[in-house]
């Protein structure tokens, strides 16, 4: 039993607790909105346009009021690198579901796009050769 525990410890050390920062865009479609929810979304649309598109841990909601059909939520998720992008997407989708339900907004299936900020390459413009 101790030997097994030792192997699990060793496995955890091998993977380390390296944390990665992910940017996740969760996209969905409004579904089954009540008249009250629709009215609130339309009244608050100015606060959720292009300028509101920020990646935060609590998420930022953006949508267009006409037509009031699709939305996206942007999240920053920090999780173990070993869990990968799939887990980061699942975490963000859970956060989005909780936030939308808390606001009383009906929605359909959620889909996420994940970018690992710790592994992405940054292409810098090189100085032009003269």
Order of strands side by side in the largest beta sheet?
2-3-1-4
Distance between the termini: 69 Å
Which word captures the global form? globular
Q: List the helices and strands in order.
A: HEHEEHE
Largest sheet: 4 strands, antiparallel
Write the layout of secondary structure elements.
Blueprint (H helix, E strand, L loop, with lengths): L1 H14 L3 E11 L5 H9 L16 E4 L6 E11 L3 H20 L7 E6 L14
Antiparallel strand pairs: 1-3, 1-4, 2-3
Can you give a write-up of this model?
With 130 residues, this protein is an alpha+beta fold. The chain is built from three helices and four strands, in the order H-E-H-E-E-H-E. Mean pLDDT is 84; it is low at 1-15.
């Amino acid at each position: 039993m101790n030997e097994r525990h030792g192997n699990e410890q060793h496995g955890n050390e091998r993977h380390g607790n390296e944390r990665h920062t992910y940017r996740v865009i969760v996209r969905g479609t409004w579904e089954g909105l009540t008249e009250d929810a629709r009215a609130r979304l339309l009244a608050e649309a100015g606060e959720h346009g292009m300028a509101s598109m920020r990646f935060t841990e609590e998420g930022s909601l953006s949508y267009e009021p006409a037509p009031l059909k699709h939305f996206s939520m942007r999240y920053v998720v920090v999780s173990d690198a070993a869990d990968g992008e799939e887990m980061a997407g699942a975490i963000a989708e859970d956060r989005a579901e909780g936030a939308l339900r808390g606001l009383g907004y009906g929605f359909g299936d959620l889909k996420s796009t994940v970018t690992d900020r710790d592994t992405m390459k940054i292409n810098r413009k090189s100085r032009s050769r003269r």
